[in-house]
UniProtKB/TrEMBL annotation:
A biological process from GO: response to antibiotic
UniProt keyword Transport, yes or no: yes
GO cellular component, one term: plasma membrane
Residue span(s) of domain Major facilitator superfamily (MFS) profile: 29-484
The keyword Transmembrane belongs to this UniProt entry's keyword annotation: yes
Keywords: Antibiotic resistance, Cell membrane, Membrane, Transmembrane, Transmembrane helix, Transport
The protein's name in its UniProt record: Drug resistance transporter
Family annotation (NCBIfam families): efflux_EmrB
């Protein structure tokens, strides 16, 4: 059964939304959206491998090079929540296609950049386009189908696009940079974006949204945009200037005050951007916290795993990228094949907890990776376990969170989930980087070799990431209620109040 409905994925009525038209090709819709998500996630990870080539090509200083990444991350993380709500108000299809156009056009500007300033400015525009496009994707994917098994399959496909894109990014970045040039890590987005816009204009279901009236919360939009962008900037720049620096101590509280003002505004606005009743749902709140911690750990794998292969095992960029292929393959197999059947049979909570336990085990295995290690022994087994764990956990946590809202508000829920991912990743990577730096310097001062010092630092990062994930496991165990297997769930069964869809 295919429809855009007013029911949660747990069951209940399946009335189509009055302002939406179901897609005539539902799986084509899901594939299209997942390609868009993978393109955006790839771009976030593909750049890291190409940074040395960018530095040589444009003469970047070491201090400014980080802004090739930060100029994208700041608007991306800051605008997701607002963009998701705009999707609910003016239509998710229009917001998605607008974001893809901006993302693709700015990608061309990035590829053609001939100076530091042009590239950084173009990356900022690309971050805006990426946020606008991706904010609504999960909400659209989750509402294509009304039947529970098909919903689980669609969310699993989205999970693969997100996680698989992150794992494939280093490989594709290495291939394009080595065989062509760094310019092509950006140019490749243009033809993909053109296809997405041309096909999406015909295939994606039309929805009018709630409408932008006089009561629309523009003050709330300004507060959350300023607060989130300033918070992301403070986090990503804290590693450079230090957590105790005047800039961090000043901007951090200011960003929090702006976000507190946003929360206060939401309590009084006639048409709030983020209704505070959302957080009465224990499933939605807990799922976002679990994802925050899980993604914080996963960023550690992608970043420090790549550094371990390159700086300790002395792999080239292309070889290091190839080292992440097994993770992408396992995530694909589990997300697109196994997870849906297991979630349908055993429930989302059970698969989330199992996936988190496997991720913890993988990080612990990586903490024993040797200085003179061998890929097949020191990295591959842990990466396979990681892929299995993430392939089970990611669809489950997204399904638990999205089941707590109605399709009419899936845009803001999608934006919230994406915001949680970005803030979790940024904060996690910053904390892990500080731990790595402290441990590496300590080992260097003790007379260890460079490789031994780096490996010791990465071991601390992997153990800390295991700690993040363990905390997520505890929270999921305590706060998330078990979801019944599909065969035991009866149509129209009333959910408990705390886990009922927000309405």
């Amino acid at each position: 059964m295919t429809a855009v409905t007013n029911s949660s994925p747990k069951g209940g009525s399946t009335m189509p939304l009055p302002n939406a038209r179901a897609s005539a090709s539902p799986w084509l819709t899901v594939i299209l959206l997942c390609v868009g998500q993978m393109m955006i996630v790839l771009d976030q990870n593909i750049v890291n491998v190409a940074l040395p080539a960018v530095q040589r090509g444009l003469g970047f200083s070491s201090e400014n090079l980080v802004w090739v990444v930060n100029a994208y991350v700041i608007p991306f993380g800051g605008l997701l929540l607002l963009a998701g709500r705009l999707g609910d108000l003016i239509g998710r299809k229009a917001v998605f296609l607008t974001g893809i156009v901006l993302f693709s056009a700015s990608s061309v500007l990035c590829g053609a950049a001939a100076s530091e300033t042009v590239l950084i400015a173009s990356r900022f525009l690309q971050g805006i386009g990426g946020a606008v496009a991706s904010a609504c994707i999960l909400g659209m994917v989750a509402t294509v189908f009304s039947e529970r098994r098909e919903q689980a399959q669609a969310i699993a496909a989205y999970s693969f696009a997100s996680a698989g894109g992150g794992a494939v990014g280093p490989l594709l970045g290495g291939v394009l940079t080595d065989l062509l040039s760094w310019h092509w890590i950006f140019f490749i987005n243009a033809p993909i974006g053109a296809v997405l816009v041309l096909v999406g204009a015909r295939v994606l279901p039309r929805d009018r949204g709630e409408g932008m009236g006089k009561s629309t919360d523009f003050l709330g939009a300004l507060l959350v945009m300023a607060g989130m962008m300033l918070l992301v900037y403070t986090i990503v720049d804290a590693e450079r200037v230090g957590w105790g620096a005047l800039q961090t101590l000043l901007l951090g509280p200011v960003s929090l005050l702006l976000l507190i003002g946003f929360v206060a505004r939401q309590a009084t606005a006639a048409k709030p951007l983020l209704p505070l009743r959302f957080f009465r749902s224990r499933s939605l709140t807990a799922a976002n916290i679990v994802q925050f911690l899980m993604i914080g750990g996963m960023f550690g794998l992608l970043f420090f795993g790549t550094l371990y292969l390159q700086q300790v095992l002395k792999y080239s960029s292309l070889q290091a990228g190839m080292g992440f292929v097994p993770i992408a393959v396992v995530i694909a197999v589990v997300s697109l094949g196994l997870s849906t059947r297991l979630i349908t049979r055993f429930g989302q909570r059970a698969m989330l907890l199992l996936g988190l336990a496997l991720i913890i085990g993988a990080f612990v295995m990586l903490s024993f990776a040797r200085v003179n290690g061998v890929y097949l022994v020191d990295f591959l087994p842990a990466s396979l376990v990681m892929g299995l764990g993430f392939g089970l956990a990611a669809p489950a946590v997204m399904g638990l969170g999205m089941s707590a809202v109605t399709p009419a508000e899936s845009g803001i829920a999608s934006g919230l989930f994406n915001t949680t991912q970005q803030i979790g990743g940024a904060m996690g990577l910053t904390v892990l980087s500080a731990l790595v730096s402290a441990r590496t310097n300590s080992l260097t001062a003790a007379g260890k070799t460079e490789a031994e010092s780096l490996a010791g630092g990465y071991h601390v990062a992997f153990l800390a990431a295991a700690g993040f994930t363990l905390t997520a496991l505890v929270i999921g165990t305590v706060l998330l209620k078990a979801t019944p297997p599909e065969g035991m769930e009866q149509q129209g069964m009333a959910s408990s109040e705390e886990n009922a869809p927000v309405s």
